[in-house]
Amino acid sequence: MKGLEEVKLIGTWLCPFGYRVIWALKLKGVEYGYVEEDLSNNSEMLLKYNPVHKEIPVLVHGGRAIAESTVILEYIEETWPNNPLLPINPFDKAQARAFVNVFHTVGEEQVKATKKAKEVLRVIEEGALGGENKFFNGSKIGLIDIVFGWLAGWLPIFEEVNGLKLLDHNSFPNIRV
Fold this sequence. Notes:
Layout lengths: L6 E5 L4 H13 L4 E4 L7 H6 L8 E4 L2 E4 L1 H11 L10 H15 L5 H19 L14 H6 L2 H12 L15
Parallel strand pairs: 1-2
Antiparallel strand pairs: 1-3, 3-4
């Protein structure tokens, strides 16, 4: 049974994308081992499981590696179906994946990315987090919450380093970081 094989996560405490995987594994109740990677000196394990890109996070399940945080999240969702991270309804599921995809690809050029990020935040503000919703999928945490979860800790740093302001309470009162 593939769900019962050994699970390891290769990451580093600095990587917000690794936290996505950690949160998903914890929400699913999956036991896993964590391997802290030294990015200044790639380990044999990282070179073995992600030899081309040499990037983290990498999920190793039963000796087979999956890289790229959103791909890993999809794998976790399909491998451990308990406590679903995606809605059951196919349309809602497609919408959740679209939110994840749009936000995941915004980081190319700062001006375009800032404009696109604000457009995405506006859609999230007006649609997904409108009303009494605590999470994107209503009252239960899901895949979109996990993908956006890194914002709380890293967005203020990102804004300061890049000299821009994405979130302010007046423009996005339902989004809290």
